[in-house]
């Protein structure tokens, strides 16, 4: 089968049929000044061999540094079987299939994925994935506006302890659709959101409250009290969670007396390797009462004419090819491959394996913090319980310290100075099950060295 | 041929409206509309107390092949939504002018009701649509 859909002869034939002299003539109604000219910045073509060589050289320049950054994307061990299975021809597609008659395997896999995500989050229904964690939160905010029919304000409370990149994306996606976001301060001692900070909103019309657990600082929020407070005030509750943490922490479906209304987050920790910011995938689960407001594809289990079980897309009347501009969302579904990886990852590690990954990450992170705060000039920012990340406060600007560590082959963490100036010299560090005691000792040793060499600012 | 009761008023978008003795207006979708949609699987009705403008989308009917908005024929306040449709949306297919009613509106201005299409005009609109 040719890769190019039409040959020169096909093109000539088609042009002759409509009486156009050449392809260029099809664009003549677009004014010349609006046409993009030749793409001058694009270099000339390279052969496959040349590209391969170029890429290996660039990859080698990255080296193999020891990574202690989390901040939304996490380095976990991915069993070799995961990607060996994902790259089989039967699975190797980015798209959620429409054609049930040709796609039973993929549809069943997505159905299993949805079942796993509802079980992990303690909710009733899952979609077949979204673009990434940040846009999943934006979609959740838009969904909350549709679902909370008691509220007309389109105002949503977002704690400052929610990932700063997520807050920016939410503003970019939903800010122009007349949603307004109120920023809640974090408690300076605990690094969490307090019920007290919500009190000033009592009696106001607020559509929803966002709670990230663990929050961007790695701190555990008081999810039960926050959820109950918001529900009593007539708000919906949107949980943003790390799916790995749910193997140990209480699922959002059980927060407070009623559980949350919408759960979303970044699916990358489930079997997707770190890769220059993506591609990753977002997930979303909800309660049956809100299912028609949920964006994205949903796979359902059904029976065919002969009563045999099978899988198909369901509730499509919400979607753009039927509801057009009134669709629940106009997102696309090309994260299918990452979802395939996540499903295979979860089936290989199982519930017990996932709990071991979560517990080992928490343990390594605690050891890391213990080792780093022993270095003079380093202290812990917050005193609340954590999952696998922590904020450290340094006695000097973080940037120089990170550069000195990088020169020693260590990526020391995420510099928070720009997003949280009030914290001054704050560094977010993470350790997962992939960091050994020797890795942690190497980091602590290098940090002590760096902090000793340069004077405090 | 679809059923167009002579005592009702209609919108071109296939809603029907009936003036009740208490001055409220009951709204549903026409027999023609339910036939065109096919088997209904879900209906979202507005909450009582909501203010609507004439022509504002305030309910959604979803069938196995499409989902459509239902528009209020008059401006006013929703006094009731037919919450029974939540569990039995097929009532709209079975009895579009009776048990399949969608909402009741208290109109701000009764003249808006008088200005709606009568049965004859709606039949003419249907005929024009199909030709």
The largest sheet of chain A is: 7 strands, mixed
* Helix-strand pattern of chain B: EEEHEEEEEHEHH
Structural class of chain A: alpha/beta
Cα Rg of chain B: 14 Å
- Strand-residue proportion of chain B: 25-35%
- CATH architecture descriptor text of chain B: Beta Barrel
> What is the top-level CATH class of the largest domain in chain A?
Alpha Beta
Give a count of the beta strands of chain A, DSSP E runs of length 2 or more: 15
Per DSSP E runs of 2 or more residues, the count of β-strands of chain B stands at 9
Please tell me the CATH architecture of the largest domain in chain A by its name: 3-Layer(aba) Sandwich
Short description:
By secondary structure, chain A is of the alpha/beta class. Chain A contains eleven helices and 15 strands.
Structure description:
The complex is a heterodimer of chains A (457) and B (131). Chain A is α/β, with parallel strands linked by helices and 457 residues long. Chain A has two domains: 66-75 and 350-453, Aspartate Aminotransferase, domain 1, CATH 3.90.1150.10; 80-343, Aspartate Aminotransferase, domain 2. Chain A has eleven helices and 15 strands. In chain A, the strands form four sheets. Chain A has a seven-stranded mixed sheet, sandwiched between helices. In chain A, helix 3 packs antiparallel against helix 9 (336-373), helix 4 (104-121) packs parallel to helix 9 and helix 5 (133-147) crosses helix 6. The mean pLDDT of chain A is 93. Chain B is an alpha+beta fold and 131 residues long. Chain B has one domain: RNA polymerase II/Efflux pump adaptor protein, barrel-sandwich hybrid domain (OB fold (Dihydrolipoamide Acetyltransferase, E2P), Beta Barrel). Chain B has four helices and nine strands; from the N terminus they run E-E-E-H-E-E-E-E-E-H-E-H-H. In chain B, strands 1-2-3-9-8-5 form a six-stranded antiparallel sheet. In chain B, a hairpin with a 5-residue loop joins strand 2 (15-19) and strand 3 (25-29). The model of chain B has no long low-confidence stretch (mean pLDDT 93).
């Amino acid at each position: 089968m040719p890769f190019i859909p039409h040959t020169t002869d096909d093109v000539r034939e088609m042009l002759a049929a409509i009486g156009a002299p050449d392809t260029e003539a099809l664009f003549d109604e677009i004014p010349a000044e609006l046409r993009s000219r030749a793409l001058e910045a694009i270099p000339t073509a390279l052969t496959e061999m040349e590209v391969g060589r170029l890429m290996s050289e660039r990859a080698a320049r990255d080296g193999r540094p020891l990574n202690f950054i989390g901040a939304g994307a996490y380095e976990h061990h991915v069993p070799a079987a995961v990607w060996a299975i994902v790259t089989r021809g039967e699975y190797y597609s980015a798209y959620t299939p429409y054609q049930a008659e040709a796609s039973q395997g993929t549809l069943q896999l997505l159905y299993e994925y949805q079942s796993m995500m509802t079980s992990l989050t303690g909710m009733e229904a899952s979609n077949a994935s979204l673009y990434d964690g940040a846009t999943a939160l934006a979609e959740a905010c838009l969904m909350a506006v549709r679902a909370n029919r008691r509220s007309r304000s389109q105002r949503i409370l977002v704690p400052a302890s929610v990932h700063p990149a997520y807050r920016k994306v939410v503003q970019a996606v939903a800010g122009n659709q007349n949603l307004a976001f109120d920023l809640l301060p974090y408690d300076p001692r605990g690094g969490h959101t307090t019920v007290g900070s919500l009190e000033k909103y009592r009696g106001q019309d607020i559509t929803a409250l966002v709670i990230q657990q663990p929050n961007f600082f790695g701190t555990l929020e008081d999810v039960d009290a926050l959820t109950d407070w918001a529900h009593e005030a007539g708000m919906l509750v949107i949980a943003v969670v790390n799916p790995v943490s749910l193997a140990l922490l209480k699922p959002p479906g059980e927060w407070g007396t009623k559980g949350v209304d919408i759960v979303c987050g970044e699916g990358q920790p489930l079997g997707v390797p770190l890769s220059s910011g993506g591609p990753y995938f977002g997930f979303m689960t909800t309660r049956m009462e809100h299912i028609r407001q949920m964006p994205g594809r949903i796979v359902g289990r059904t029976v065919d004419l002969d009563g045999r079980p099978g899988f198909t897309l369901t509730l499509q009347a919400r979607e753009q090819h039927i509801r057009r501009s009134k669709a629940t969302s106009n997102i696309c579904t090309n994260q299918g491959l990452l979802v395939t990886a996540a499903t295979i990852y979860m089936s290989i590690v199982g519930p017990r394996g996932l709990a071991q990954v979560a517990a080992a990450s928490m343990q390594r992170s605690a050891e890391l913090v213990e080792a780093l705060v022993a270095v003079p000039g380093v202290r812990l920012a917050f005193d609340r319980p954590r999952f696998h990340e922590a904020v450290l406060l340094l006695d000097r600007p973080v940037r120089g310290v990170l550069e000195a560590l990088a020169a020693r082959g260590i990526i020391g963490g995420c510099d928070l100075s720009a997003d949280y100036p009030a914290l001054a010299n704050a560094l977010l560090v993470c350790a997962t099950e992939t960091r050994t005691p020797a890795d942690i000792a190497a980091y602590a040793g290098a940090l002590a060295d760096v902090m000793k060499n340069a004077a405090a600012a | 041929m679809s059923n167009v009761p002579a005592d009702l008023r209609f919108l071109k978008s296939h809603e029907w409206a009936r003036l009740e003795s208490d001055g409220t207006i009951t709204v549903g979708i026409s027999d023609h509309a339910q036939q065109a949609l096919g088997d209904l699987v879900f209906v979202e009705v507005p909450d009582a107390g909501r203010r609507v403008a004439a022509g504002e989308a305030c309910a959604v009917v979803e069938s196995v092949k499409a989902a459509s908005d239902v528009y209020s024929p008059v401006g006013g306040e929703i006094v009731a939504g037919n919450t029974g449709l939540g569990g039995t949306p097929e009532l709209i297919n079975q009895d579009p002018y009776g048990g399949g009613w969608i909402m009741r509106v208290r109109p701000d201005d009764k003249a808006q009701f008088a200005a709606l299409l009568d049965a004859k005009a709606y039949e003419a609109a249907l005929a024009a649509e199909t030709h």
